[in-house]
Specification:
The protein contains 15 helices and 14 strands. By secondary structure, the protein is an alpha/beta fold.
């Protein structure tokens, strides 16, 4: 029997998201989430997609090992256990791979050590990813574990885009440079956009706008990233749900000296209390739009600031690429918030961009064009699928090794 299944794990600091896929047809066999790990009451929600009802339970789950064992039990109850000979690999989302990891990588002791060495530049993400990897290794030590890195797609950026203009020796010593994130999404969406246009990825220049609670933009030339909005960490770039995005670095010095805030307090401010939630108290775009419709000026200003930053990046990446074939919206806000898409493109007609109101208002899970036929540059909505991208990359790597 040929093993064709891949379990995708996305381990956060207090959660584990998972999907089991069959790579013969990219179908999902099961999806689930364990959250509030380590708290008094944790929650596990498991949905089999091969028949049967979704199951949800609340109980103490002490750590990631207990969480993954619970996941394994749920999968086994559906005949999809981790001991199945049909399981080819476990694919792990790893947020930061630095410059060393430019492609999916089978996890060895040395690979794990390098992921650990990158913890200082990804303190919120890599430790949780490492925990998930070690736990999965303990459960299936015989199975290939594959790391798929958020940063890998962006390693093709030229040094002119990746370098910060600070002392080179200091930057190199502390690995300070622009890495970019959401790479699996940008890779998948840019490739799917080329398919939507009926072209090969190498023939298409695309601006991808990944707009979720975290948000990032990328300039993709011929299938390769040449610039992206996030930097050393996911804080740089667009206005996000709780993150500030681009800001004068001297604000930090000002808050420390004048506001007497500690580094930790400033870190929390910029990562968790800024962006939309800092501007208007809400980070849900649906709620913000509801408030705007009711005449809320605070919400309207937050929306305008969000859109203004989006426009700046569209224009900047248009200049970087020189020729743009498509601007594409993806992720939760990008796929569902028609007013954001309309406002981001409004006024850019001289760049060949326009949105058709009727097409833009359609809600669909399908990749689609929302620009009028006369527009020189296509505007598209392409639902992202990071789990499928991780599974595809992991399976291709394992399949190549077994060939």
């Amino acid at each position: 029997m040929t093993a064709t299944r891949v379990l995708v794990l996305n381990s956060g600091s207090s959660s584990v998201k998972y999907q089991l896929l069959d790579m013969r047809d990219s179908s999902r066999l099961a999806v689930g989430l364990v959250e509030r790990i380590g708290e008094e009451t944790s929650r596990l929600k498991h949905t089999p997609l091969t028949g049967g009802d979704a199951r949800e339970r609340e109980e103490p789950i002490a750590d990631h090992e207990a969480a993954l064992r619970a996941v394994a039990g749920e999968l086994a109850a559906d005949g999809l256990g981790l001991d199945s000979p049909e399981l080819a690999a476990i694919g792990h989302r790893v947020v930061h791979g630095g410059l060393k990891f430019t492609a999916p990588t089978v996890i060895t002791d040395e690979v794990l050590k390098e992921i650990e060495r990158l913890v200082p530049v990804a303190p919120l993400h890599n430790p949780a990813n490492i925990t998930g990897i070690r736990t999965a290794q303990a459960l299936r030590p015989d199975l290939p574990q594959v790391a798929v890195f958020d940063t890998a797609f962006h390693t093709t950026m030229p040094e002119s885009a990746a370098r910060y203009a600070i002392d080179v020796r200091t930057a190199d010593e502390h690995r300070v440079r622009r890495y970019g994130f959401h790479g699996t999404s940008h890779a998948y969406v840019s490739r799917e956009t080329a398919k939507l246009l009926g072209k090969a990825p190498e023939d298409v220049n695309v601006i991808v706008l990944h707009l979720g609670n975290g948000a990032s933009a990328s300039a993709v030339r011929g299938g390769r990233c040449v610039d992206t909005s996030m930097g050393l960490t996911p804080l740089e770039g667009l206005v996000m749900g709780t993150r500030s995005g681009d800001m004068d670095p001297a604000v930090i010095f000002h808050l420390a000296r004048v506001g007497k805030m500690s580094i930790d307090e400033i870190d929390i401010l910029l990562n968790k209390k800024s962006g939309l939630i800092g501007l208007c108290g809400d980070n849900d775009m649906r709620e913000i739009r509801r408030r705007i419709d009711e005449g809320d000026q605070e919400a309207a200003l937050a929306f305008d600031i969000y859109v203004h930053r989006l426009k700046k990046y569209i224009g900047a990446y248009y200049a970087v690429l020189g020729r743009v074939d498509a601007v594409v919206f993806t992720a939760g806000v990008g796929e569902n918030a028609a007013p954001v898409r309309e406002a981001a493109v409004a006024g850019l007609e001289e760049l060949g961009l326009a949105v058709d109101g009727a097409l833009n208002s359609v809600r669909s899970d399908e990749a689609r064009l929302i620009s009028p036929e006369y527009a020189r540059v296509a505007v598209a909505v392409v639902p992202t699928d990071e789990e499928l991208e991780i599974a595809t990359q992991a399976y291709a790597l394992v399949d190549d090794r077994n060939a």
